[in-house]
Amino acid sequence: MPTDLAPFLAVAVAAARAAGAVHLAHLGTARIVHTKTTYADLVTEVDGEAERVIRAVIAGTYPDHAVLGEEEGLGDVVAESDFHESDFRWVVDPLDGTVNYAHGYPVFCASVALEWRGEAVAGAVFDPTRDELFTATLGGGAFLNGQPLAVSATPTLTTPALVATGFPYDNSGERNLALVARLLRLGVPVRRPGAAALDLCNVACGRMDAYWEIGVKRWDVAAGSLILQEAGGQVTDAAGVRTPYGEMIVSTNRLLHAELLELVQEGGR
């Protein structure tokens, strides 16, 4: 692994901020250009423009690095060995929270992560409406606008914790309803903000205590998962395996991870 990650983080920050400037420039006027999986899975002209800006920033310093992006990337499934003759791959979500953005709801961001041989080593998530920049490097801690981050000390779900989730655009979201209902019956407040990268960052800075979701993509969670883990949190799949790239992501302040995993594995029963 590279010994000095600061130059990579600087590029991630520059790229995320450049995308955020595109977001703000078109907020309230962006056109929906097409849909993807369903009528609700929107793509605006800003998604594509923001990704082109991010790619240009990366190429300006690291032209030989691979880039996996949501709008102009390599598709949903990329083999771990596919690094395009480079150990380095940038994983980019140019506009996380597109549906929110298209409706003028101010919960969206740009997410930029660098992977080295499949592991995220640097990441930046920029929320332009709040001017909040979340950053992390592997082993170097996590920060919000330059100030160190730490997860909450909430010990149990029924303290109560504040938890977030999301729902996929297809009907598989019904699998999540039982778990949401179980938590609500326990008196646990559940939120659905609609931007996975920000959900992870909000757990990282202690605003939330946990976040889980089915069907997120690599670009949704690569940077946010690194930021959360560097802030002291825990990120696994539904089986408890340490990876942000399973069918389901389960992330917490670490203290209540086992409790949430048990509910996830029970399917909310």
Which geometry do the CA atoms define?
A: globular
Structural class per helix/strand content?
A: alpha+beta
Which oligomerization state do the chains in this entry correspond to?
A: single chain
Average pLDDT, all residues: 89
Strand arrangement across the biggest beta sheet: 3-4-5-6-7-8-9
In angstroms, what separates the terminal alpha carbons? 43 Å
**Biggest beta-sheet profile:** 7 strands, mixed
Beta-strand percent range: 25-35%
Poorly predicted runs of 5 or more residues: 34-41, 73-83
The number of E-state strands comes to 14
Give the C-alpha Rg. Answer: 17 Å
Brief description of this entry?
Helices cover 32% and strands 25% of the residues. It has helices at residues 6-26, 45-61, 98-102, 174-185, 196-204, 218-230, 257-266, and strands at residues 32-35, 42-44, 66-69, 88-96, 109-116, 119-127, 132-137, 141-144, 147-148, 163-166, 190-191, 210-214, 234-236, 248-252.
Could you explain the architecture of this structure?
The chain is an alpha+beta fold and 269 residues long. It is built from 7 helices and 14 strands. A hairpin with a 2-residue loop joins strand 5 (109-116) and strand 6.
